[in-house]
Amino acid sequence: MKVAFATLGCKVNQYDTATIETALRREGCDIVAFPGGADVYVVNTCTVTDRADAESRQLARRAKRVNPRARVIMTGCFAQTSPQQVAAMPEVDYVVGIGRLAELLRAVRGELDDASGRIFVDNLRKAERVSTLGADVFTGQTRAFLKVQEGCDLFCSFCIVPFARGRSRSVEPREVLVQLRRLAERGFQEVVLTGVHLGGYGGDLKPRIGLADLVEMIAELRPLPRIRLSSIDPPEVTSRLLEIMRASDVLCPHVHVPVQAGADGVLRRMRRQYDGALVRDVVAEITRQLPEPGLGTDVIAGFPGESDADFAAGYEMLATLPFTYFHVFPYSRRSGTTAAKSADAVPPGIVAGRAQALRRLGTEKRRAFADRLLGGVASLLVEGTRDRESGWLMGYSRNYVRVLVPGDDALVNSEVRVKLTERRGDRVLARPLAATGDANVGTV
């Protein structure tokens, strides 16, 4: 049986798709590209905005156009929050909510009949554990993801995720370590720990622990060479967590702190649990503790009620802080959220202009960071694809700089020390250290 996947949204969705794919491969299914002629199409949907819902619907229609006789199964956040709406689409055969892996596999195998129904969705606000684990196949990737936390209890005014993913719940540390060892056995050199609200890890466990406790256990056991953390909200980037990262050569010096806005008034309307002063303090502590850290952030441009003065204040804060890259999101309405009911929406043209200005600032910061590192040594994990323009191998340094290096395919999925020699636009070029004769000690 041929199965094709399409995945929208975040790293947690990518992990869930990998879990499903792992299970199907063990059953002998062939995983094929989505444009090809599959027998079953699984669309792992996103619902973070109304536009994401539309993209999910488009993928279902596209699957039926490719093969009108194929089964189309919708899963993920849009399927979880709007199952009746999704099931009403003539192209959709089954709607399977998050965490219903057994039913999803039965739907793929064609084992469900009319008596079983077409919709399989639980109320995840009542869920007490993470039920989707075990991914060890990440097609086309040399880095793996591991979901250690699921759900969210913050209820930011722009976000539907707590309704889609349920309440915050964590994977037991023992199971996290088991999964890391499995991924190491599969040959992965780097794993990204991810979650819907990663900084909330452990609050539901008994005894209660924190993310720093989990990270410390991993650092002590060293299950594989590189561990990277995904997004952590500003209040949860603690001095203890940073101290553990600084002391370990397994934990990558890379912190992604989703600030979302720089003006206190906008942060209050977003129902974020911090202000600009805390962001400044956290960023100062990161740069004090970690040498040349990769420091990223998410920013929403044009949130309802964001005045020109709000945007200017936020822009100034982001410009003065040592972030090394931005992910910029023009505000997009999400039905069912508090922000969607706001009467003071920012005109689309202004939203687009603010997003463009923030992206330009992010580009400047990314290039300035790369320039600062030139002449130094980086530890590069080489990926399996090559840069189309140069034909060179590609990979990321430990502090999340995208680097190109010449070499043969034997270097793929290995960590190579390189000297950063040149920046061309957004491209950082390097040479293997052995070829440079350079004996620099500092490595990023």
Number of helices: 14
CATH domain topology of the largest domain: pyruvate-formate lyase- activating enzyme
Poorly predicted ranges: none
How many strand units?
18
Helix/strand-derived class? alpha/beta
Which CATH class of the largest domain?
Alpha Beta
Q: State the end-to-end distance.
A: 45 Å
Question: What fraction, in percent, of the residue positions are helical?
Answer: 25-40%
Mean of residue pLDDT values: 94
Largest sheet: 6 strands, parallel
Strand content: 15-25%
CATH superfamily of the largest domain: tm_1862 like domain
Question: What is the topology, as strand order, of the major beta sheet?
Answer: 2-1-3-4-5-6
CATH architecture of the largest domain: Alpha-Beta Horseshoe
Task: Report the principal-axis shape.
Answer: globular
How many domains make up the 3D coordinates?
Answer: 3
Explain what the structure shows.
The protein is globular. The protein is built from 14 helices and 18 strands. The protein has 444 residues and is of the alpha/beta class. The chain folds into 3 domains: 2-122, Methylthiotransferase, N-terminal domain (Rossmann fold), CATH 3.40.50.12160; 143-372, Alpha-Beta Horseshoe (pyruvate-formate lyase- activating enzyme); 374-436, Nucleic acid-binding proteins (OB fold (Dihydrolipoamide Acetyltransferase, E2P), Beta Barrel). α8 (211-221) packs parallel to α9 (239-247). A 6-stranded parallel sheet has the order 2-1-3-4-5-6, sandwiched between helices. Strands 14-15-16-18-17 form a 5-stranded mixed barrel. 47% of the residues are buried. The longest helix is centred in the C-terminal third of the chain and has 26 residues, at 348-373.
